[in-house]
């Protein structure tokens, strides 16, 4: 379980997260919605320990991410997929996927490679395993990014606006894979602007506004008129997204 | 003779002077072919020595440069301080002075190193200071998101540095490192001042034996130009090979 208690984070004088409480059970798919600057990405970056938190507590399966000794364990349990892919440019798609399993989990290289190939195969990149990131399209790169996360067999998948840098066609490629993953019971925390997709895959929707957690509701309730939509800020956000 | 005739409109004196110059050049060419022949072996030996020194110093400079760049990027304040002082010292003292200090100064303290080793070491140390700056800017140019990915996946600082940061930084540095290395070849001519008869040193000997400095140094000029030209071709190829498919546009 990922548990976030009274999380606070500021960059200089700008408060980005202002007392967030949230827990995510294994097997859940939770989408985090909110306007740009509402703190969604920062929340993800606090969970995986890329940002130091100012106050509060985050635990991943009871490992405290603020404790440097426990952070390593916490990180082994979660895999992050980034908005801008952040692939290692000097390594082939396959090596991008196998590097951490070999270096961190001390997996046998040949085995890791076999699994890596299978993962790439499963996202339709079996024939691109030896290509470098720069030789792949955006959608292909993000699929490699997802494989890189999955290769660590994480209990939690943190997805930080993974389709924001992609055109609609490539977005569809990537979303298809994510939909497939939810079908297999992967826990996902999905920061996104793809409201319709979030609605189709999520168990729960969390809505952030100016660093505060405004609404945390089961997916269906969130989109119901008397549920999340009853909140003026949520209604405004959703109507704006639909227009776009 | 034809040269004299083609300048018929100039004054007689000018024509005569032109002819003398021309004849001298022709004689020079003759000298290169016939009179220089006995000395070719010495020059070739010098060239070989230059190549030897440079190959070792190129490797040394890259190793020193990478090590210093790593120190400058390290978390330890002490290592960063040492590295900064190192770069500041060796970039701001003329190479000739460094060389004299090593070769003529250190023996006073009982430290004797032969001319060849001194040359290689001095070039590696000085070249390393410049190379470290290039590699450091390569490190700074790496997209921080790539390093964050490595962190998130649990790679240790060491592994991240050795398997992610350095390989990318070196790839980004190949071309600018090339100019540092070419400079190293040019600087190696200064080693002739510490009794090392590399290319320039042996050319000096041949020039004094033949009394034909113009011709000898013309050959020397060509030799250095071809050495550096070959290196720059090699660097461009290496850059392309190393970065094939890795950089967006190579």
From TrEMBL, chain A:
SUPFAM superfamilies with a match to the protein in the record: P-loop containing nucleoside triphosphate hydrolases (SSF52540)
Keywords: Amino-acid transport, ATP-binding, Cell membrane, Membrane, Nucleotide-binding, Transport
GO molecular function: ABC-type amino acid transporter activity; ATP binding; ATP hydrolysis activity
Record's subcellular location: Cell membrane
Chief location category: membrane
PROSITE patterns recorded: ABC_TRANSPORTER_1, ABC_TRANSPORTER_2
Membrane topology of the entry: Peripheral membrane protein
Gene3D superfamilies documented for this protein: P-loop containing nucleotide triphosphate hydrolases
Domain ABC transporter span(s) in chain numbering: 2-235
One CC-aspect GO term: plasma membrane
Pfam families named in the record: ABC_tran (PF00005)
UniProt record similarity statement: Belongs to the ABC transporter superfamily.
PANTHER family tied to this protein: AMINO ACID IMPORT ATP-BINDING PROTEIN (PTHR43166), GLUTAMATE_ASPARTATE IMPORT ATP-BINDING PROTEIN GLTL (PTHR43166:SF9)
Name of the protein in its database record: Amino acid ABC transporter ATP-binding protein
Organism: Pararhizobium mangrovi
Classification of source organism: Bacteria, Pseudomonadati, Pseudomonadota, Alphaproteobacteria, Hyphomicrobiales
């Amino acid at each position: 379980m990922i548990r976030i208690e009274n999380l606070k984070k500021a960059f200089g004088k700008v408060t980005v997260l202002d007392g967030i409480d949230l827990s995510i059970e294994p097997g859940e798919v939770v989408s985090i919605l909110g306007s740009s600057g509402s703190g969604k990405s920062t929340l993800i970056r606090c969970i995986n320990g890329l940002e130091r938190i100012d106050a509060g507590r985050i635990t991943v399966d009871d490992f405290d991410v603020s404790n440097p000794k426990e952070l390593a364990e916490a990180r082994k349990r979660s895999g992050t997929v980034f908005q801008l892919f952040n692939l290692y440019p000097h390594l082939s798609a396959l090596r991008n996927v196998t590097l951490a399993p070999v270096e961190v989990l001390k997996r046998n290289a040949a085995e890791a490679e076999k699994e890596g190939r299978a993962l790439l195969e499963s996202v339709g990149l079996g024939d691109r395993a030896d290509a470098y990131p720069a030789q792949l399209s955006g959608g292909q790169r993000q699929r490699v990014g997802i494989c890189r996360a999955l290769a660590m067999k994480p209990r939690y998948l943190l997805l930080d606006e993974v389709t924001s840098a992609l055109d609609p066609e490539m977005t569809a490629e990537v979303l298809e894979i994510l939909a497939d993953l939810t079908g297999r019971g992967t826990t996902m925390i999905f920061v996104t602007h793809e409201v319709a997709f979030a609605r189709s895959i999520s168990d729960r929707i969390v809505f952030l506004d100016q660093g505060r957690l405004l609404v945390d509701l089961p997916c269906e309730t969130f989109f119901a008129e008397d549920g999340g939509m009853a909140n003026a800020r949520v209604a405004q956000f959703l109507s704006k997204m639909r227009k776009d | 003779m034809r040269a004299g005739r083609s300048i018929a409109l100039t004054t007689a004196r000018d024509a005569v002077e032109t002819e003398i110059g021309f004849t001298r050049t022709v004689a020079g060419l003759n000298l290169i072919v016939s009179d220089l022949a006995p000395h070719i072996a010495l020059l070739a030996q010098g060239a070989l020595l230059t190549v030897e020194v440079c190959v070792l110093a190129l490797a040394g400079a890259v190793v020193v440069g990478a090590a210093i760049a790593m120190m400058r990027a390290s978390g330890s304040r002490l290592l960063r301080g040492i590295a900064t002082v190192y770069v500041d010292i060796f970039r701001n003292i003329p190479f000739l002075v460094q060389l004299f200090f090593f070769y003529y100064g250190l023996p006073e303290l009982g430290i004797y190193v032969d001319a060849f080793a001194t040359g290689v070491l001095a070039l590696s140390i000085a070249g390393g200071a410049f190379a470290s700056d290039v590699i450091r800017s390569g490190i700074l140019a790496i997209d921080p998101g790539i390093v964050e990915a490595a962190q998130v996946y649990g790679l240790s600082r060491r592994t991240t540095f050795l398997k992610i940061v350095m390989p990318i930084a070196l790839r980004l540095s190949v071309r600018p490192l090339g100019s540092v290395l070419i400079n190293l070849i040019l600087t190696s001519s200064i080693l002739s001042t510490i009794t090392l008869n590399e290319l320039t040193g042996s050319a000096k000997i041949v020039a004094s034996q033949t009394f034909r400095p113009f011709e000898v140094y013309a050959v020397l000029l060509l030799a250095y130009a071809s050495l550096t030209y070959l290196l720059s071709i090699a660097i461009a190829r290496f850059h392309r090979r190393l970065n094939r498919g890795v950089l967006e546009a190579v």
